[in-house]
Amino acid sequence: MKKAKNKHDTNSVVEKLYSIGQASRKLHLSSPTLRMYEHHGVLIPYKTKSGRRYYSDADIERVQCMRHMIKDVGLNLEGIRRLFALLPCWEIKQCSKKEREHCPVYLDSSKPCWTFKRVTCRKDSMDCKTCEIYLMSSTCTDRLKTILRGIGYLQAE
Ligand code: SF4
User: Fold this and answer.
1) What value does the CA radius of gyration of the chain take, rounded to a whole number of Å?
2) Distance CA 44, CA 114 (A)
3) Phi/psi-derived region of residue 41, left when phi > 0, alpha when psi is between -120 and 50, beta in every other case
4) What is the DSSP-derived secondary structure letter of residue 123?
5) What is this structure's pTM?
6) Domains of the chain and any CATH numbers
7) Do the beta carbons of residue 16 and residue 57 sit within 8 Å?
8) pLDDT computed for residue 63 by the predictor
9) What is the mean pLDDT of each run of 10 residues along the chain (157 residues)?
10) Amino acid 8: pLDDT
C-alpha cells in the first residue's frame, strides 16, 4: 500500500492509496473492470507519470456505491454516467450567464463535466477528483436525489 500526500488538500492529509491489484481485491472486482469504469468516465484514479493507477478509500467507496446502483437499483454504466451528467455544476458553482454560454458542459448534458476536455474550471482531470461536483457523484442515488432537491433542481415528491 502506498501513502501519498494529496496535493489538492490544503491540510496535506496523507491518503492511503491502493494499487489496481489491491483495489480490485478489496472490491472483489477484476482490474479490467476498474479500468472500464475509468474508460466510461465514472471513476478518476490517481495516475503516476508512468501511467500506474492508484485508488484511495474514497475511490473504493465510490465504486461500492456504483456497484450498489448496478446490482440493486438496476442501472448500467451508461445509466450511471447519464445520472452523473445531470449534476448541474453551473448551478452549484454559480457560473455567470456568460460563462454558461461558453461552457461545453452547459451545452451538452450527455456526459459528466469532468469528462470534457476543455473547461475553464480546471487544468486537468486531477482537479476534478477533489471538486464538490465529482465528490457529490460519489454518493448513492438516494443521496443524489436529496442534493438535487436541495438546490431546487428536482421537485420535491
Ligand atoms: S472542476 Fe471538474 S468536476 Fe468540478 S465542475 Fe469543473 S469539470 Fe466539473
Assistant:
1) 16
2) 9
3) left
4) S
5) 0.82
6) 2-150 (1.10.1660.10)
7) yes
8) 96
9) 57 81 97 96 94 94 92 89 88 88 88 89 79 84 68 62
10) 46
Q: In the chain, what is the straight-line distance between the N-terminal and C-terminal CA atoms, in Å? A: 45
| Nearest protein Cα to ligand 1, atom 3 | 128
Amino acid type, 69: M
Protein residue with least CA distance to atom 1, ligand 1: 128
CB 128 within 8 A of CB 122: yes
Tell me how far CA of residue 19 lies from CA of 45, 54, 86, 132, in angstroms: 10, 5, 31, 25
Closest residue by CA, ligand 1 atom 6: 121
| Cell 431546487 -> residue | 152
The answer to whether the beta carbons of residues 113 and 89 sit under 8 Å apart is: yes
Which stretch of DSSP H or E encloses residue 136?
helix 132-136
Partners of 11 in the beta sheet? none
pLDDT for 93? 86
Pairing of the two strands 2-5 and 53-55 = unpaired
Residue 32: HSE in the Cβ half-sphere, 13 Å Cα cutoff: 0
Choose one of 91, 121, 137 to mutate for the ligand 1 pocket test, by most ligand atoms within 8 angstroms of C-beta: 121
CA torsion 55→60→66→70, rounded to 10°?
110
